[in-house]
Protein: Nitroreductase family deazaflavin-dependent oxidoreductase
Organism: Actinomadura chokoriensis
Amino acid sequence: MLYGKEHVKRYQETDGAEGHDWQGTTTLLLTTTGRKTGKERTTPLIYEPEGDAYLVVASKGGADEPPLWYLNLQADPEVKVQVKGDRFTARARTATPEEKPPLWRKMVAAWPAYDEYQTKTSRDIPVVVLERV
């Protein structure tokens, strides 16, 4: 099973032939700029398409603190995305409270554990919208 740095490496090398399909769902690669280091960081994330955009969830498995990639995109919302062989620049934004409920349901359909993760924390787990620029 691929995960972490090896997942990223194989996904990039194979244009997602290895790593896109993962544990019954699909992943993309999200590259953010470190808010402290200025270095690029790439993370494989479960995603769902939403019109011309893509959705990801900043769950960190239900931890009380958000994942570092989410903090990074809050500081600099311009990100790089790879979906299979498609690489593009996107602007990341957190779904508004009004738009989140159907987007959350869509992501839970892709990865049911998100509902369980939300029960582990008082933090409102964000849905992030990645809009191609």
Notes: The beta strands are 21-22, 25-33, 40-46, 48-50, 53-57, 78-83, 86-94, 127-132. Helices lie at 4-14, 68-75, 100-110, 113-119. The chain has a mean pLDDT of 96.
